[in-house]
Design goal:
There is one protein chain. With 372 residues, the chain is an alpha+beta fold. It contains twelve helices and eleven strands. A hairpin with a 5-residue loop joins strand 3 and strand 4. The longest helix has 19 residues. The relative contact order is 0.12. About 3% of the residues have low confidence. It binds fe (ii) ion. Fe (ii) ion binds next to loops. The site of fe (ii) ion has 5 residues, from loops.
Length: 372
């Protein structure tokens, strides 16, 4: 299997992994042949990368952090609870929000603790229909990996994990025509969207089973070190460490996901973009730890080598993620090899990665994107 950007999909390619909806129902099975209609639909749904079945790469293993059961349960509960809140129901009619998500977090923490030294990699399982649910779960996982790396104990992992999973819960109170508007928001609309931080805090702060600091994650995830964030314009030390951490993981997931106004960045591009904001937007110490945990060349990614060959990342060395084991699939002339072979870049120091095969036209500008 290879990881292929949605922009590079072609009719006739076959899916390598199933695609689910948030109910855990398989919408597209493995081996389904893509048509131009399906590709268009995947792109409209905001899916950035898919696994494609490719002869010669069948044996590549994709490390999955969460069990399928955990991921489906988490997405199901997020959808259920968020839909109830979007429907305008008062939250005090649903006193079990804290209980539901604590149970989900226990499953997630159990999965994460069963892996040692995991890395942040693009998720191998996609859901259709709602980018907010996927985003909530991704930010939760990335934040937990980072927090573990920072040495957080179990109770803090629970507190931060809940806050990360629910950081955008306030979006349920924003009119959907604004949230789903294709294209850039007007200043007035942007001001309305910014309120999701305050709404989220209000929804969570008195909720039984939700620690107050988790509610602060919803409140502070858009604060930035230089005071230019929102809603309170807090500066540096006024922002809780959870807020600083979420600022990074939230932005990272937004950058690596296709949006209406932007193609997804690759992991190394997103990390560079974050570094451009050190000291002004993001905390340098936390970012440096984060960088060491991002798989900049994730398994399955197509890369170009200095030899002119095209290869697929097969395995990552934890101690040297920038020099993975790759499988050569095409020669310098772009001809497919009959017998692809592996090359360990950790031992072949004269060979470098010069680019990624699925490099896409980037619509990013130097202006800070309108992440909400
Ligand atoms: Fe947000």
């Amino acid at each position: 299997m290879r990881l292929v950007s949605i922009t590079m999909l072609e009719p006739g390619m076959k899916l390598g992994k199933r695609i689910y909806n948030e109910e855990g129902i398989v919408l597209l099975g493995e081996q389904i042949e893509l048509t131009s209609h399906l590709i268009k639909r995947l792109s409209q749904l905001g899916i950035s990368y898919v696994y494609i079945h490719d002869p010669g790469t069948e044996d590549i293993e994709f490390p999955e952090l969460l069990r399928e059961e955990t991921r489906i349960r988490a997405l199901k509960e997020i959808k259920k609870q968020f839909s109830i809140l979007s429907g305008g129901k008062m939250k005090n009619q649903y006193p079990y929000l804290g209980k539901v998500f604590t149970d989900v977090m226990e499953m997630i923490l159990e999965d994460i603790s069963s892996h040692s030294d995991v890395m942040i990699m693009m998720s191998g399982m996609h859901t259709m229909d709602h980018a907010l649910y996927d985003h909530s779960l991704n930010v939760c996982i990335y934040s937990l990996i980072l927090a573990k790396a920072l040495g957080y104990e179990q109770s803090k992992l629970m507190e931060l994990g809940l806050g990360a999973l629910l950081h955008d819960i306030g979006k349920t109170q924003i009119p959907s025509h604004i949230l789903q508007k294709p294209g850039k928001l007007s200043q007035e609309e942007y001001e309305i969207v910014k309120n999701h931080t305050l709404y989220g805090f209000r929804l969570l702060k008195d909720e039984p089973g939700i620690p107050l600091l988790s509610a602060h994650c919803a409140l502070q995830h858009h604060e930035r070190l230089d005071g230019q964030g929102y809603p309170q314009g807090l500066r540096g030390h006024e922002i809780h460490e959870y807020g600083k951490l979420l600022a990074l993981t939230d932005s990272y997931d937004a950058m690596t996901t296709n949006r209406v106004y932007q193609n997804a960045l690759l992991p190394h591009q997103a990390v560079e973009m974050l570094f451009a904001g050190t000291g002004t937007l993001y905390d340098q110490r936390i970012l440096e730890v984060f960088r060491d945990y991002v798989a900049i060349y994730p398994v399955g990614l197509t890369v170009q080598l200095t030899t002119g060959d095209t290869a697929v990342v097969v395995r990552i060395h934890r101690e040297a993620p920038h020099r993975p084991v790759v499988r050569i699939i095409k020669d310098q002339e772009g001809r497919k090899l009959d017998a692809p072979y592996d090359l360990d870049l950790l031992h072949q120091l004269s060979v470098m990665i010069t680019g990624v095969g699925e490099e896409m036209a980037l619509s990013f500008t130097s202006e800070e994107p309108q992440f909400t």
